[in-house]
Amino acid sequence: MKTYINNKFIRLLPYIGSLFLLSISMNASAAIKLGKIELTSTNQDIIGDGEQAYSYRVKVTDADSGDAMPDLSFDADKVTWSVVDASDNNYDYGKLQEEGKLFFGDQRLITDKHGYLTATLASTVGVNTVLAKLDIVTKDDKQERIANTPVNFTAPEKPTGLLVYNQDVSQYGGTNVTNQPEPIVGLAYKFFSSGNGPVNLPDRTIAELRDAANTPVFDPDSETAIAEVTRGSTAVVYNPEFGKFYLGKMNGGDAPALGLTELKLSVINDKTGAIKAYTHTLNYQRQLTNIMSINSATGAGYVTNDNDCSSGKYGGNPGQSYTLTAVNLSEIIPVSGVSQGITLLEEYPDLRHWTLLSWADSKHAVAPDSVKLMVKDDRPGVPTVGKLVTYDISTKQITDVIPASLPTNKSYAFLCVIHKK
């Protein structure tokens, strides 16, 4: 009997299989109804790193009975997940999907045991207000659903370099500066790679985030840049028209951008809405300013007292949160026995071409061939310690005594400094 029953059961298997296939075929051909697109992820603002993703599901039910339809399969060319922009910007998110920057993954073509089709959405760029969309084609009709909840992908932050420019004071405010690929002709500049300075902040300088000296991080003709100071000084000013940061500008009583200050530039593609984010962390230890450039033709502004930096004549606005003091020699060049970190001339060997020295004498950012800096001597054990001396940038010579009468064709710069507190 046991053997007979088993043989009979075996002979029935083909018929059972046919009935099972018939059941599936009937389900697939039955009219269906799509429910709304449900966002099952709790976080609605994740990083666009290509790894993190939002999860979606859509319930498929029988159009007549309303019952869920589990284990219902669809052909791949009948199920299409796409994205649309929920904002008024009308960004072309479809282009991002074509480029593989915004993509759906883990797309299930068979409903689960509860009747849901599922998919995930990830991005390799920042993008905002994204709505998932699902189109399904059956033999009877085409159904479309758009999610009600927009999601955002935060742009991954990329540390990048900083190109520091000499500023032409004849155009203070930067109206003469354009975001061109090459550094501005006729103006001094210095590129600092990510995490590599600068330490010294010459007054009246501007800066731009760049991947390299000749590689801007955005194209103003097709992208929009939004800048912010995410950490540190609020004295940094950004000009959105030219994509420049103003680092050495003292605004009223505000302290300059000293210490840890993080600059961030979010670059938005005007067509697709893709967002890239660039950062650079500053750690300026001192800001240097030239309270006067002395020209022997007039002798104007000649000083011998280092207290002139902090006097009311040159000290700035009352109530300011910083104090100007005379620059030490060890802050200009390395001095044995005194540690000041990277000195001004080590960081800017072409200092003569910076407006720090030339602004008072010329509207052009070009200094005279020979410049002497007035600084306080802090060399241990020398007779002039604590007194003003001059340092000739060209000859690298220190003059112990400032001459009573200035030689012809020489310019002297009396430098003052603001230190990080």
TrEMBL record:
Which keywords belong to this entry? Signal
Q: Where is the signal peptide?
A: 1-30
Task: Identify this protein by name.
Answer: Invasin
Q: What is the lineage of its organism?
A: Bacteria, Pseudomonadati, Pseudomonadota, Gammaproteobacteria, Enterobacterales
Q: Record's Gene3D superfamilies?
A: Immunoglobulins
Name the domain of life: Bacteria
